[in-house]
Specification:
Chains A, B: Pfam families: DUF269 (PF03270). The structure is a homodimer. Chain A has a single domain, classed as Orthogonal Bundle (Putative cytoplasmic protein), CATH 1.10.3100. Chain A is about 45% helix and about 15% strand. Chain A is built from six helices and three strands. Chain A has a three-stranded antiparallel sheet. In chain A, strand 2 and strand 3 form a beta hairpin. In chain A, helix 4 crosses helix 5. Chain A is globular, with a radius of gyration of 16 Å. The N and C termini of chain A lie far apart (about 45 Å). The interface between A and B is medium-sized, with 18 and 18 residues.
């Protein structure tokens, strides 16, 4: 990005992205008391931003923070919902996260694993910028849609 | 069973079953210090037996006991290993158990969900007899093998 970092908020410019729109909707849906109504979108997504320097300073020992696991779940929820809007296929999230921060997260549609991510250093889950967050979500959704297109029968089983 | 219940141990006669043999091997493999070496197989499997009367008396509130979750995991491990011996396909277990005792357990091979069980009242997980335990394991393994045969490409993906 060529803009002076001092003139941009943390996380950089918020790109137009179907994934970010979905992720924001998922997060706002959890706010049943409306306490975040006045929060701008960038604030809701702020904790998804972890810069390279910050990442280096996050210890990877101890149980991952519940708030972090919540953010990871919302991230994959947003992928599942965007996938459903694009393909009609519903999918359910399952994860097996070891307390040391590694594990596996899957989205399952019918008999098909439409997305499978092996994660490690989950303590450091985050993205350099909103653009990187958007790109990760959009690209995983596209991968999941491609897997669905490849094995439609297993997904309908 | 026509035998007098007083002459049979709890759980009834131990049938010849590939599944029970596998389950016993899975459990013994966890016993790295050999403290169960002298235990007969029926003792190792004893906690899998829950009679109808006992089931009624088990409360289904509160978090399921970790020992119970351990038994459930070993049960599905045994299915995965027996499936591998029969078909060559390796599978990984994932589960999402709500603390109230309901949830879902899956075995995943490649991109295929070879076994998917929605569970509830997990607090009461158990079988009337060793024969019923054997039959449940054998029949789930057969179902998983049938799913594999139906979607071989997704399983290899």
């Amino acid at each position: 990005m060529s803009a002076d970092p001092d003139t941009l908020p943390r996380g950089g410019a918020m790109p137009t992205s179907e994934f970010l729109t979905q992720l924001i909707a998922v997060i706002r849906a959890e706010d049943s008391h409306g306490s975040w109504d006045a929060k701008p979108d960038a604030d809701l997504l702020a904790d998804y931003i972890v810069t390279r320097e910050e990442r280096r300073e996050i210890p990877i020992i101890g149980d991952p923070d519940p708030d972090l696991l919540w953010r990871v779940e919302r991230f994959y929820d947003a992928i599942a919902l965007l996938l459903e809007r694009r393909t009609g296929a519903q999918s359910a999230q399952m994860s097996k996260i070891h307390h040391e921060g590694f594990g596996r997260i899957v989205l399952i549609s019918g008999r098909l694993v439409v997305l499978s991510k092996h994660v490690r250093d989950l303590h450091r889950f985050g993205f350099e910028s909103f653009a990187a967050l958007a790109e990760a979500g959009d690209s995983m959704t596209a991968d999941a849609a491609a897997t669905l297109a490849r094995f439609p029968d297993a997904a309908r089983a």
